[in-house]
């Protein structure tokens, strides 16, 4: 039985830190959106942020949840989505990473994350990251037929004053099978697409892939869309329309028989 | 077989006019969001709207889809959501209603809806409303155990210059069972809640309830939230947090045995 805390970060009215949507969707894939929301629980008093910071890409991946919901509907796949800002806890980082609870993000200082005690950091991990991790693991356990884990992200067009030209980044960790398939499947999409841009596993951004897919031998890919392409419904629909058939091909190509000998799922 | 049009309103990249999300969600309810999106297909050249009108409540129910997705997740119920602006075709209106394709909405003229030919109006109905209607009917046919149809809407705080004080409107058509149960269940929510405000069935806004629930004897309710309560994730979470347990109670109360003798589902 879970310990009942006297001061939980999230009140019952605010709901859980993570949800599985469309859990019974039949597609052989699981979608993940770690940075879906800019929600900051009232107990954290907005982390001391001004309105600009609280609405910026530092707080969430702008447009990523709309895109993820579109992909969920178009592919009919389950979607595991965090419901709390990554500034509270970044569910794509392990607790030992300093930027799991960043005191600074790009140009923004995060006053509510400065000088936290170990107990305060542990509480964030316990109340946000632990349920996220358990929920995603449970969603994958429930779908042993899944052939692909897809994480859905967006990035800011200008970072630290520098313009980013890439429109769609396809990132991988140690297993690059799905990323390379997806890059090929998107060959004539008209999007400026690149492997491991605007950042890569070396920047510590593939934690979810590593923690939930690599160990299972499950093919996996991280999708990064420049967020100015997601700032209207027309933009979201276009990107979803380009990604959907490409992802459907990768899901089909990544069936267990095509996995390498080290695939733990094929040799339980 | 469907006739293939040479100039469909929606291109394949833009996707279908309606989707069922979480179709296998086990809750005994079906959620509907007719005004979920402000998306205008590229073929319609923005209907000649300026940016303010295209983003305004005239084009969609601001915050309604976010709330509907929250309720979908919290209740684990299917959600039927339109993907096209109500200014293209208002899926909560029958084709014979003049405001199914409005030439004016509150203070906004809609140039692209002025002087349409019968063929142009028919094309909107054929490509948007007909699939919406068929998809919702199919979702209900697939869930004969459902005890409640819930439509999720939002309204603007100021309409034609007049301030609206109500925060949550609960609307019904001929069958008021679920609306009255929900009003009771929300008794101590702290929201200014009223039956049939800020408008009612007499204003022609209960078409979905009438077309899809009344004839089936299925209990039904239309929820209208003032959209300034849905303009932040905290606001959406609060309203979803208040509605979820109340709706769960109504779903339980509206089981077929409690239906009146005229319930067609109880006497097939």
From TrEMBL, chains A, B:
The keyword Hydrolase is annotated on this UniProt entry: yes
Protein name: Predicted N-formylglutamate amidohydrolase
One Pfam short name: FGase
Record keywords, A-Z: Hydrolase
Gene Ontology molecular-function annotations: hydrolase activity
Organism: Cribrihabitans marinus
Domain of life per record: Bacteria
SUPFAM superfamilies attached to this UniProt entry: Zn-dependent exopeptidases
InterPro entries: N-FG_amidohydro (IPR007709), UCP029730 (IPR011227)
